[in-house]
Design a protein that fits this description.
about 260 residues; alpha+beta; 2 domains; 3-stranded mixed β-sheet; two-stranded antiparallel sheet; 9 helices; about 35% helix; about 10% strand
Length: about 260
Amino acid sequence: MTGARPVAGYDVRPTQLTSIASHTPTSGPGGLRSRRAASAAAAISSLSDWVANGNRRPTNGPGLYSRRMDVSEYLAHDATALAGLVSRGEVSATELLDVARQRAQAADPTINAIVLRMDESADAQAADPQLGGPFAGVPFLIKDLAQEFRGYPTSYGSRSRARHIATEHATITQRFLDAGFVIFGKTNTPEFGAKGITESELWGPARNPWNPDHSPADRRVAVARRWPRASSRRPARTTAADRSASRRPATGWSA
């Protein structure tokens, strides 16, 4: 049939399911039969909503989502685990985005990690029913350095580029988007990435989350908001190893 979508091995239209649900009897002789009919009608109605949404779990509302997530639970999951929650319909992409923003708003006044919020584009991404990819729905931050996002400024930490608006996505930014990450902001960076500490005149110094009197070095700033408290496994003071972070894989690009 033209315009039909496959559902559980059948070709049906959303309007057909709606029609079936509206004509399914919810009463009749015998209480068991009545309850079964009511249950069937509810199931058909739910399936109709699912088909109308393109045979995908919704990413922008309650519906199939079984619980609410708080900040402590969010921090206990890595990106892979968060993506799994979204794909299984346990939480929505918009819910994860809200929780990430809560954490950012609580931590950022101290550590000055996020220099640009991208609320409009992030909201649109999270609400997109076609959002897909292995990390679909996972909140994410990109650096304000060589990771251009179309329509937003990319300053490279320099006042000379503060008003430079990107006309297209950088290749790496596009790959992040293709993977399904919801990009909601840009992080602090040394001016042109040339120093081992993040203290540009444009954005001001970023702070170490374990000791705000110290610098997080360069790419460490992006993970600063991710760690809720000090750990003996993480150095509070900038070391030579920290200052060489740019020569290691950019773990700071995680959200």
